[in-house]
Structure formats: C-alpha cells, structure tokens
Amino acid sequence: MMPPQVLVVEDAAANMKLAVLLLGKAGYSVLQADNAMDGIALAREHQPDLILMDIQLPGMDGLTATRLLKENEATRHIKVIALTAFAMKGDEEKMIAAGCDGYIAKPIQYRNFLAQVEKILGRLGGGKETP
Amino acid sequence: MNKKILITDDDARNRKLVETLLHANGYDVRSVASGQAALEAIAADPPDLILLDLMMPGMDGFEVVRRLKVDPETGKIPVIMVTALDDEGSRVRLAAAGVYEVIVKPIDRWALQACIGRALGEAHG
C-alpha cells in the first residue's frame, strides 16, 4: 500500500526540517512548499492526503490559502491542519471559519504532532492503525 | 514490576523535584548528576526510560544520546530530553538523534507524566 502523502507548507526552514524528519521517520511520503502559492499548486497536482499549513506565511497567509483550497472542487476534500504559534481562542474560530480540519500548536511536540497526523489520516482510512 | 526511570541532571534541586514526582507515581527512580554517570548507570542496569537534561557541564545530553544510539540495546530505551533552551534548531537536531520527546523547562508535571506514560505504554496505547 502507498504510504499516505502529506504536504507541508511552511516558510521557516527549521520547522520544515523538523516536520519532514518526523513525518519521514513515521513512514509518510512528504511534499514541501515554502509559500502558499506553491502549496496550492502542489495540492492540485499531487492530491495529498493531508496538508499541514503554517498560518503565518509571507505573501498569502495560510488561512487565505486554506480558504482557497476549500473553495475549489479539486482540493476541497483534502484535510488541512493549521500549524500555529498563537493558538488563542479567537484564532481557533478563524481557523475553523477558513475551513481547517484541526490545528497543531508550535513549537512542535514530536509525539503530539505525529499523533494528530495519524488521527486525522486514520479517520480517512489511509493512515496507520490507531487504537 | 515497577518501571525503572533514570534521571540525569546536574542541578540537584531539579533532580530532587522530578525524583519526588516520579516516585509518587510509582516508578522505580534513580538519579545521577552527569552524562558520564548516566552512561555508567545505564550500562550497569538498563532503565526503561531516561530523562536527560540537555545542558550539563562535561558530557551534555546530546552526546549521551549519541552514544546510547550506537548500541542497539541502549538505543531502544526512550529518552525524554529536558531543556531550558527552546529553539527550533535543537528540536531538529534532537529529533534526528532519535530523542523520543523534548520537554521544555520549567517542567509542566502533567505534560511530563503524560509523556512518560506514552513512552512506557507504547505498542501504541
């Protein structure tokens, strides 16, 4: 079976490296984009199982990108998890309004991060078995 | 049998604090004050989990992990790294070295307990 594919859209190099490292070790296939426009293009082209979307991106921000993905027939079905350093109450509402399926607070906790990814992919039936 | 946890921290107060907490949780706790002492203690009696301070004089936590991972036997023991230094660069470095999780000081006891439970429970809950 093909491993689930995860697209990471993140402009901070260290965060990207960490996400790619953790996802790779866990057996996922990983796509990378360091800005929203490239992220959207990769999502259309590759149809990943999940997108991890940094909220604070230069140029188009992650919430706008998520809204565009969710408005488009071709990408609407792809799950999006927001990566955010500021998980305040109002922000959560904004992320839900934009169409995010969940969020992960930064800094990334290794196990928590992987557990969230597994949880959402498990629900899709493509991920590794969850208890 | 109670699970064995080895605490490694050069700060006596931190050691005592974590030792008391984990002892109260029913773990069999030992503690040492340096990276070198940790390696010796692990070789003499391998614990089920290692709590390791990153910044220690002499051999630091990163070097301890590097040496543990060389040996497949000690490499299997989950290591939780405790650090006051929270930058993305060290998170990448520690993940690459095979650290189970990073916990940032000051230690949140609930987060620590949850993390230890998960590391020891394994086989995925």
Key descriptive features of the protein:
heterodimer; A: about 130 residues; alpha/beta; Rossmann fold; five-stranded parallel β-sheet; 5 strands; globular; disordered C terminus; B: about 120 residues
Notes on the structure:
The complex is a heterodimer of chains A (131) and B (125). Chain A starts with a strand and ends in a 7-residue tail after the last helix. Chain A is α/β, with parallel strands linked by helices. Chain A is globular, with a radius of gyration of 13 Å. Chain A has helices at residues 13-25, 36-46, 62-71, 89-98, 110-124; strands at residues 5-9, 29-33, 50-54, 79-84, 102-105. In chain A, helix 2 packs parallel to helix 3 (62-71) and helix 3 (62-71) packs parallel to helix 4. Chain B has six helices and five strands; from the N terminus they run E-H-E-H-E-H-H-E-H-E-H. Chain B has a five-stranded parallel sheet with strand order 2-1-3-4-5, with helices on both faces. In chain B, helix 5 (88-97) links the parallel strand 4 (79-83) and strand 5 (101-104). In chain B, helix 2 (35-44) packs parallel to helix 3. The radius of gyration of chain B is 13 Å and the shape is globular. In chain B, 32% of the residues are buried. The A-B interface holds A 12, 14-15, 17-18, 21-22, 25, 107-111, 129-131 and B 86-89, 91-92, 95-96, 99-102, 104, 115, 118, 124-125.
Ranges of chain A where pLDDT stays below 50 over 5 or more residues in a row are 126-131
Helix content of chain A: 40-55%
* Average pLDDT, all residues of chain B: 92
CATH topology-level fold name of chain A: Rossmann fold
Assigned CATH class of chain B: Alpha Beta
Query: What's the helix-strand series of chain A?
Result: EHEHEHEHEH
Helices of chain B, by number, come to 6
Q: Going across the major beta sheet of chain A, what is the strand order?
A: 2-1-3-4-5
CATH architecture of chain A: 3-Layer(aba) Sandwich
The rounded Rg of chain A comes to 13 Å
Distance between the termini of chain A: 20 Å
